[in-house]
């Protein structure tokens, strides 16, 4: 990805974080991690494309923020225990998670 394209992707991610909404053009539902099956290896986190940055390790669990998840299968392909599923019935992310997302967001 070119530097300009990466900058645009990071800007779009920052806008989604500020608005706390999913991309309007995203047709696939977001993914979710089944905590009871997850081994907290962070493979999914490392596999999530930077322009989405939807996966966060909160210490005891790894979560996908649905508003940042495009529904692409990148994390699924990296997961060694197949604990990532399509989340047709996702709910908005709570404020405590958004606080973590905003703290870890790239300020540039």
From TrEMBL:
<keyword id="KW-0411">Iron-sulfur</keyword>
<keyword id="KW-0408">Iron</keyword>
<feature type="region of interest" description="Disordered">
    <location>
        <begin position="1"/>
        <end position="28"/>
    </location>
</feature>
<protein>
    <recommendedName>
        <fullName>4Fe-4S ferredoxin-type domain-containing protein</fullName>
    </recommendedName>
</protein>
<feature type="compositionally biased region" description="Basic and acidic residues">
    <location>
        <begin position="13"/>
        <end position="28"/>
    </location>
</feature>
<keyword id="KW-0479">Metal-binding</keyword>
<dbReference type="InterPro" id="IPR017896">
    <property type="entry name" value="4Fe4S_Fe-S-bd"/>
</dbReference>
<dbReference type="Pfam" id="PF12800">
    <property type="entry name" value="Fer4_4"/>
</dbReference>
<feature type="domain" description="4Fe-4S ferredoxin-type">
    <location>
        <begin position="60"/>
        <end position="89"/>
    </location>
</feature>
<dbReference type="InterPro" id="IPR017900">
    <property type="entry name" value="4Fe4S_Fe_S_CS"/>
</dbReference>
<feature type="domain" description="4Fe-4S ferredoxin-type">
    <location>
        <begin position="29"/>
        <end position="58"/>
    </location>
</feature>
């Amino acid at each position: 990805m070119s530097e300009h394209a990466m900058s645009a992707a990071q800007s779009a991610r920052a806008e989604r974080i500020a608005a706390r909404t999913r991309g309007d053009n995203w047709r696939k539902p977001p993914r979710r991690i089944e905590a009871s099956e997850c081994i907290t290896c962070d493979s999914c986190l490392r596999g999530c494309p930077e322009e989405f940055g939807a996966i966060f390790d909160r210490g005891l669990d790894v979560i996908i923020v649905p508003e940042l998840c495009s529904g692409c299968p990148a994390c699924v392909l990296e997961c060694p225990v197949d604990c990532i599923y399509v989340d047709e019935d996702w709910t908005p992310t709570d404020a405590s998670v958004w606080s973590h997302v905003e703290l870890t967001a790239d300020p540039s």
